Amino acid sequence: MGIDVAGFTDDQGTKGVWDNFQCKHYNKALAPSQVYLEFGKMIWHSFQKQFTPPRKYYFIAPQGCGMSLSRLLRTPTELKKELEANWEKYCKKDITSTQEIKLEGDFKKYFEKFDFSIFDSKDPLDLVTEHKQTPFHAVRFGGGLNPRPEPLAPPNMINTQENNYIKKLFGVYEEQIGQIGLTAQTIMQHSKWARHLDKQREYFYCAESLKNFSRDNVPNGTFENLQREILDGVDHLTYATYANKLTCMNTIISQAGSLALSANPLISVVHISDKNGICHQLANDDLLDW
Question: Which of 42, 54, 200, 285 is 20 to 30 A from 99, alpha carbon to alpha carbon?
């Protein structure tokens, strides 16, 4: 019925607000004679209430639209006039295989009131530019990801979302210092471990920044796949016996930093700090422990 790709804006589908993308694959720019029938299909089938006329109707073609068709698309009144003049030749017998569609009666009235300004085109280069703004571009076409912003800086106060991995870090420090019940305040009395805590929080927030970056630049689930790869890469180390919690943590985080993760689309922007931070994210989710 003249719909190749329908873009819905609500759950009403083609009965609501939607856009139509009519795709043509020719080795030359589109001419009016190649698409008169497509105009006719859209008007006839919407008259038949098969769907609501779309908000916009775009022609998409590798070579774009030629000058004649582009001129008509820019001038809806002229497009309407030309389609009516060419209806007999291009539309009447070809809209359906079951009947001839004559431009007369109630359908002619519908034709006269139809909003021809919905018809437009998209240049292939414009399509690519728009696609670059989506999370799917780099994965499909390559060319690298968008520049990654500077990582988030840890807030001065420990956030509640950090509680679990911080608790596990304090377990490491308590064992090293020989003091139980450490808090964010009392750890400051031990400058070495206070610095260590600051660095681990930097790693965690670096990984959180990568997670946020992934939402806008790669398909859903890509960052989670990266976490899963790292977990798989260190899992065997979680079954070993260690002299203390610090050795356990350092061994696992060191292994994560050395993993070659060439299959993940994010790999071009992943740093060792991210891999370290992902270990703390996994610890935060109780998938790793020291």
Answer: 54
**What is the three-class DSSP state of 6?**
strand
Distances (CA, A) of 225 to 148, 232, 233: 19, 10, 12
The answer to whether 42 and 80 are in contact (CB under 8 A) is no
Q: What does pLDDT average to over the chain?
A: 95
Helix, strand and coil in the chain, % to nearest 5: 55, 5, 35
Query: What are 159-194's pLDDT values in tens digits?
Result: 999 999 999 999 999 999 999 999 999 999 999 999
The tokens for 138 are 């780099």
Amino acid at 75: T
Residue 2 pLDDT grade (very low, low, confident, very high; cuts 50, 70, 90): confident
Looking at the chain, how many residues does it have? 290
Q: Where are the domains of the chain?
A: 5-131, 160-284
Q: At what angle do helices 272-284 and 222-234 cross, to 10 degrees?
A: 90
For residue 248, give every residue at least 6 positions away whose Cβ sits within 8 Å of its Cβ, in sequence order, or none: 240, 242, 290
CA angle 289, 275, 149 (to 5 degrees): 130
